[in-house]
């Protein structure tokens, strides 16, 4: 009898926790996406698109071939926005996503070098993640050194990963979120990564088809504009 009672109590506690978590997911979803999400996305898109294309151009990596210095230059351009030296809040969200794209490319670059035997000898026994952060460190002001800086850069990466979780369809999707998104992304203690994943999954389920179409079309315009260096960015808003 006692064992059965204990199991029933545990099940009730589990059900209660799941209900609480579900309520939290719902509340966070509606904090992120307020009234008139279509209008918010369209307005932020028109305000931010040209700057996003410019950032992509500034951080484009060479194909002849790419080098560590290319990554350093790209990281510096991204940091100008992330560190609030220029740009808007919406562009800053996109800059975090661009930061993660650059890290993905850098990891691929390091892996290719390692596989081809071009890795620096003293780096052979270091993990690619460590080397990648070293490259990112090289992009910082030489007057800012030390353990604290490395922690700050790791924190930027962590924020970038959380923004990527909410990008869902395409980087431009983060433009739909309210200003509360910044607090939710930065609030690791209040919204852990597992919860954020569930919020992203719920938003994806609720996402109307026209949102998907809008982001896909916008992504294609960005791709074309980024490649067409001679074209006028003004044509994007037509």
UniProtKB/TrEMBL annotation:
Top-level taxon of the source organism: Eukaryota
Annotated protein name in UniProt: Uncharacterized protein
Record organism: Immersiella caudata
